[in-house]
Design a protein that fits this description.
A hairpin with a 2-residue loop joins strand 3 (115-122) and strand 4. This protein folds into 2 domains: 43-56 and 229-491, Alpha/Beta hydrolase fold, catalytic domain (Rossmann fold); 72-215, no CATH class. The chain has helices at 43-48, 79-88, 95-110, 162-177, 183-201, 218-221, 233-239, 281-284, 288-296, 319-328, 330-346, 363-372, 414-417, 447-460, 480-491; strands at 50-53, 72-78, 115-122, 125-127, 141-145, 153-157, 206-207, 243-250, 255-262, 275-278, 304-310, 357-361, 385-389, 424-430, 467-471. The radius of gyration is 24 Å and the shape is globular. Helix 4 packs antiparallel against helix 5 (183-201) and helix 7 (233-239) crosses helix 9. By secondary structure, it is an alpha/beta fold. The strands form 3 sheets. The chain has a 9-stranded mixed beta sheet, with helices on both faces. The longest helix has 19 residues, at 183-201.
Amino acid sequence: MKSKRIITGLIAALMLVSVCACQKSDTAESGGEAVRLKNYMTETEKNSVSIGELTLLDGDVTEESPDGENTVEIDWWTDKDYRKKYEEDKSTFSEEEYDDLMKSLDEAEKAGGFIVADKILVNGRVYTGIKPPYEYDGGRLEYWISKDGEDQEHVEFDSFNDEFKEWYRNQLDEEVKDGYVTQETADQTYADMPIVFQSVIDATWKELSSYPSQTASLADIFPGSKSDWEYKREEVEAIKDSVREMSIFDEELESNFIVHITLPPNFDENKKYPMFVMSDGVWRFGNCPSLRKLMENGETEDVILVTIGYDYAINGTEMAVRSKYFYENRKEFIDFITNNLTPYLSETYNIDFERSAFYGHSAGGVLAHNAVFTSDLYENQPFKYYIIGSPALWQIHRLDTEEDPEAYKSDYGYWERNETLNKIIFACGGENEDPEYEEYYDGYDTTLEGIAHLMERLKEHGDTKSECKIYENSGHWQFIPDMFVEFFRKYYGKN
């Protein structure tokens, strides 16, 4: 069944690159006493952490569990349950979408209410496909479907038969064609669908005992999978033994994150390494093989690469998901990175925080800008460098929040609290990206204007280290790989 994708507007802003020569402290070739940041994690958060081998490459379509017996767990919800859920997650929807949901629930209540399957696990996998009716016995099936909320189509079938299965296969194929899901996700969903239906027909399903708490809100609305991640499989295969996959839960955000830690060649736990942290792991993990290749070739020092992604059950490419972390709750996200994630990593790895960097692009560029200019409010200082890539600062005024949409123009009061900036900003953007999002500016700074004004403010306050670069012949994202190479050669180059 088609699910409406709530896309609040793509964020395009690539900030200019602030690059300046810096004096190097300890290199990866030197030892040095390990620096430990203060860890503010709760016991619950600490107990949630698991680190193991890379699982991103796993995910072949399977119709049965390894032992040949399938386990289906279902959580049945009433209209009242959904009303409570949508009220709690109101910020996830636009005002119009929320009103439409409430109107539908009002009509359902007048008609006597309903019971439907809300969350389903198949052999431990999150299932987001078409769902069987409550207490379904294998007979008549009836659905109303729509594409992007447009004209509903009524379909019905005499039973759970081949005609129904063929119809649903076509529905999934359309979703792939329209770009809503990947082929891998569609194939897995189709394989799981008869398992789910048969469990209800045979009454073999079980009550849902546990569901990834981190996915209880967003994943229901924006289902994702490992196939949403963008990378070249053969490149990741070549470095997979050097990658550690961390699952870490944050209570403030009520979210679980998948963090990939790519260790440098010939990693030595007794050596000190700079750390390069990237948001949007769904895309940026795909850049790790090429960055590691710079180290392998001796072009740069060894650096620990860290990418922050969301739980695999959440589609990290959805703008509404990114908006939750990079806009509405960016303070909490910065808290998580500064007070939870990096301190935890400092307890495992010998990190040179005086030479570590944080990168964010587009919506993540807004996060990076906010992070550098609120860094003075934190005891922990995990980063020296901040790469602000195409910050979509103009998107802030489009949010349904009480936030001042122009607070970024004062760099969040940083200059009222400080006279100088002890960080280095590397801002970057593509020269052709402004026209891509002109319909969203509404009189506010464009992406490139926002970058230019940032650099003006830095100059006014005597900052001579930060720089910016606008990449020629590039739109919103095309320059990213070249920018990474340039940054690494300049800040971590051996010469």
